[in-house]
Amino acid sequence: MSSLISLKNDVASVASDNWTLVKLPESQVEERKQAGKVVLFKLTGEQTVTEAQVANTVIPETGNVIVPLSVFIARQQALKTRIAQGEIGVWLATHELLETLTQAQADLNHLPFIAIFVERFADGRIFSLGNLLRTRYGFKNELRAFGDVLRDQLFFLKRSGFTSFVIRADRSAQDAIASLNDFTQPYQGAVDEPRPVFKRYNRGA
Asked: Which pLDDT value is given to residue 36?
């Protein structure tokens, strides 16, 4: 069964995926030791994709494809026609800067699709990225979360502007849908409802 949950008119369902995700080739990424543990550092601004990876990334010649941000930037001219035809989406990891994307593509709504990859469930940057894409940059098209995505995140990802979610492969997308209704009336304003609860209801005298 598909791992993709899609929101259409605020109704969630398990859906088939019409987009092909293009991944970077494997590479030796520097590991550093801290406090006796091996950790992978992916701090903002740190280069984690090599030129060889970008050059060796294979993009299908037809169909709708989601390419890594670094590949999109490097091959933007070659993909120009397909971008205009709405066949090219972009994905970026949580440590990558949205400004890098906006410098390459000033009007993000020329892209039909943006996806955010979250490597670890506990990485909250994905919520900030979704919010910024919807509010600061005015992105109106499909926004997807994928990677280490679990049901406990879905309600908050939806509030941050995400409209589709690829649930981790070892979990059930059908079971995860229920989490989108975990709360009926959130107190805070967010992307899906900017008004806080005290502005949504007139309590009267």
From this structure: 44
